[in-house]
């Protein structure tokens, strides 16, 4: 039977064999040595040591690409957080923390999707720390929601986090008070889940919620006894910046004296094909004695996904920037695009977003450093049809999108038909009342004439 030691050995062997060595975050490398965490990865991969080692590697790569360890309350949209779209509270019958998603508060397209993803990573990491890696239950509160609240991209991202990057972290998926109009959409969601996750899905109403969440743990809005009202409370943990670990020395030949940043590579981003994505990356190092803030701009923001697109760096700290070509973009249209990295000195790394905005607004050209990068796409990495995303992945994505689109169209048609039916009912009722009134008046008139004839 595979053991955590087997997973650790396979992971460390891959570290030694990889050239150039990956610049994983120190906290992730520490996690790769943690017995408890490795047991979770093994559980997630059905005790397959090789699969577990591969998953551990993919987690480190992903966390590095999104800057997961650097996400905190100072660099996420706290105004989004305080709305209470996502929060943790209460426990299920197994004692697992509830991660609650209030679906009716989310309207697709109203908020920046990348900001929402960073908030999700913040909550997932926070729950992992506070719960010591114990499993959580995803509670989808669908009461009062409709098709305008159904965001397939967001749901797929939630599933991806549990499926690929947070091992053995999901207890149940609870879908509370799901409107019938969303039934078809959740059939699509089921196809995206592994068989084990489908088995953990629970569709509940106010009457059946007690089977998954005890009344004492359920909110009053769900028919429970807990009168909790969400209020964001910052995480209580001591913040520290660990020393950056590197696996290959990089010379200073690419940095000019007096410049704030060193970029590696310093003038060209080399893109490569990895699976169904074409991506490139570069590393920013703060060579200044003070902390700096940086921003990254491109001549074609609609063609690229840049993460992170901005941030802060303490003196001597580094940040790897990942750039992914958006699906469906033809490579011949991006070869001439450029990237601009701008930097400015700041008093400390934990400035608030509002303070950071003011610093940038008050800066002048003499206080800002700028670095320009061009793109290089090797000929062998360009797909024959010029598209980044093709094959079964594209077909699956298109199929899900098409299904939801058809559902939305059918819902809109049904809504129109219902309005017409209501109008028809109103007209019919009005005509019935008019006929009744006319009939009564006619009857009264005939009775009156009859009485008149009798008197004559």
From TrEMBL:
The UniProt entry, under InterPro entries, shows: CRAL-TRIO_dom (IPR001251), CRAL-TRIO_dom_sf (IPR036865), ER-organelle_contact (IPR053012), Ig-like_fold (IPR013783), MSP_dom (IPR000535), PapD-like_sf (IPR008962)
Start and end of every MSP domain?
260-378
Keyword entries, A-Z: Membrane, Transmembrane, Transmembrane helix
Q: Which domain of life is it from?
A: Eukaryota
Q: Does the keyword Ribosomal protein apply?
A: no
| Alphabetized SUPFAM superfamilies for the sequence | CRAL/TRIO domain (SSF52087), PapD-like (SSF49354)
Q: Give TM regions.
A: 423-443
Q: Would you tell me the Gene Ontology cellular component terms?
A: endomembrane system; endoplasmic reticulum-endosome membrane contact site
The record, for Gene3D superfamilies, names: CRAL-TRIO lipid binding domain, Immunoglobulins
Under the heading PROSITE patterns, the entry gives: CRAL_TRIO (PS50191), MSP (PS50202)
This protein's name:
Motile sperm domain-containing protein 2-like
Give the species: Spodoptera frugiperda (Fall armyworm)
């Amino acid at each position: 039977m595979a053991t955590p030691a087997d997973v650790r050995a396979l992971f460390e062997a891959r570290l030694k064999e990889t050239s150039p060595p990956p610049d994983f975050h120190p906290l992730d490398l520490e996690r790769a040595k943690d017995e408890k965490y490795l047991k979770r990865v093994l559980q997630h991969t059905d005790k397959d040591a090789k699969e577990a080692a591969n998953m551990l590697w993919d987690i480190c790569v992903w966390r590095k690409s999104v800057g997961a360890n650097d996400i905190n309350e100072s660099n996420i949209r706290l105004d989004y957080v305080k709305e209470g779209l996502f929060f943790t509270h209460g426990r299920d019958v197994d004692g697992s923390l509830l991660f609650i998603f209030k679906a009716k508060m989310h309207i697709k397209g109203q908020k920046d999707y990348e900001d929402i993803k960073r908030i999700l990573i913040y909550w997932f990491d926070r729950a992992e720390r506070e719960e010591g890696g114990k499993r959580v239950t995803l509670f989808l509160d669908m009461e009062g929601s409709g098709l305008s609240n159904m965001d397939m991209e967001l749901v797929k991202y939630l599933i991806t986090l549990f499926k690929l990057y947070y091992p053995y972290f999901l207890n149940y998926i609870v879908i509370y008070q799901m409107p019938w109009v969303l039934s078809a959409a959740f059939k699509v969601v089921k196809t995206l889940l592994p068989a084990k996750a489908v088995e953990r899905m629970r569709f509940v109403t106010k009457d059946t919620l007690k089977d998954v969440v005890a009344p004492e743990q359920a909110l009053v809005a769900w028919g429970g006894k807990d009168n909790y009202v969400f209020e964001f409370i910052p995480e209580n943990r001591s913040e520290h910046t660990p020393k950056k670990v590197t696996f290959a020395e990089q010379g200073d030949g690419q940095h000019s004296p007096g410049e704030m940043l060193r970029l590696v590579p310093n003038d060209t981003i080399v893109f490569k094909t990895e699976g169904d994505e074409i991506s490139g990356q570069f590393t920013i190092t703060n060579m200044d004695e003070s902390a700096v803030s940086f921003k990254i701009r491109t001549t074609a923001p609609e063609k690229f996904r840049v993460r992170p697109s901005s941030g802060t760096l303490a003196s001597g700290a580094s940040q790897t920037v990942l750039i992914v070509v958006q699906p469906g973009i033809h490579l011949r249209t991006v070869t001439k695009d450029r990237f601009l990295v701008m930097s400015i000195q700041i008093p400390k790394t934990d400035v608030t977003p509002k303070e950071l905005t003011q610093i940038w607004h008050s800066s002048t050209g003499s206080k800002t450093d700028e670095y320009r990068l061009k793109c290089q796409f090797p000929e062998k990495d360009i797909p024959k049809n010029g598209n980044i995303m093709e094959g079964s992945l594209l077909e699956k994505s298109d199929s899900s999108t098409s299904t939801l689109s058809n559902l939305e169209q059918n819902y809109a048609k049904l809504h129109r038909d219902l309005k017409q039916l209501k109008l028809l009912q109103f007209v019919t009722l009005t005509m019935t009342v008019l006929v009744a009134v006319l009939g009564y008046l006619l009857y009264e008139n005939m009775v009156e004439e009859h009485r008149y004839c009798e008197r004559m």
